[in-house]
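Feature request, filed as a ticket because there's no other form

It would be nice if the structure record came with a short human-readable summary line next to the tokens. Right now we just get the raw output. Example of a typical job, pasted below so the devs can see what we mean:
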Amino acid sequence: ISIIGAGSWGTALAIHLAGNFNQISLWVYEKELCDTMTRTRDNVWFLPGHSLPKNIHPTSSLQSAVEGQSLILLVVPTHVIRQTLTQLKPFIEKGCLVISASKGIENDTLFTSHQITQDVLGPNTRTATISGPTFAKEVAEGVPSALLASAENLETARQIQELFTTDKMKVFANNDLVGVEIGGALKNVIAIATGISDGLGLGYNTRAALITRGLVEISRIGTELGAKPETFYGLTGLGDLVLTCTGDLSRNRQLGIQLGQGKSLKEITENMKMVAEGVLTVKSAYSLIKKFNVQAAIMEETYRVLHENKSPGQALKDLMKVEISTEFAGIKGLE
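Raw output as currently delivered:
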């Protein structure tokens, strides 16, 4: 298998998969980091203290990483997927399966990761997604966890399920690829919102309300895009949402906390080594809300705090004034 991207998640997945594959090529964007990882067997920048097994081979060459491989795991931030795939395209084997582990929605096209992949590599490219409630650090440590493998063809999802399952990782399969990718992306926006709430010093009631109503907003947008409503009540919806909104290892939650405490977005992101996907995803969420005329007040107010300099306190006041309806209004299949 070739893993493209050696941030914390790419490195953790490489460590997790080391017992299931004879050889893992791990593409590292930063040449300096690649050299250090090869020498010390430690990703000192993004996942320090977790030794790389001997069958993981870091490389800074995309060509050597993917040439001859039938399985590629893409673990780069969503906003660089298109650029990375364009560079990979000349070296990818025909019939190769490209699995994405990224969680975001491209701003300009509003494509999810598998749609970007097919746009760059061709509509017949075999694509899939791996997603779920997992922090990189805990996966690297072997904490019992669960993931979801999704592909439009359920047999493909089951193949990935078999490849990714270990005694520490249960992997489930489904064929709602759009739903899985939308759930994985939009939960980051709600995580920022709950972080803002915690940063403002509000209570557990507020957090629970934001998580629950946030899930409704994710479901409204997802079902407009053709997703199955039940997908959002599984691992990649409710599961990932709860983890990211409550776990201290969540970068999106931590960013929200600092916003709630009065720091500016620029100030926060300048000091972040790793990407908080929700900052860009909230732009895509806002575009989808307008495109489908969906009620998603939590995401709208989060967008205004992040990108229109609205004060978190005012956003909360405006959120409490939003007209209410029945609990599942606007979710296709549940209305």
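Something like this underneath would help us a lot:
The beta strands are 2-4, 24-27, 42-43, 47-51, 56-59, 71-74, 97-100, 126-131, 145-150, 169-174.
The chain has a mean pLDDT of 96.
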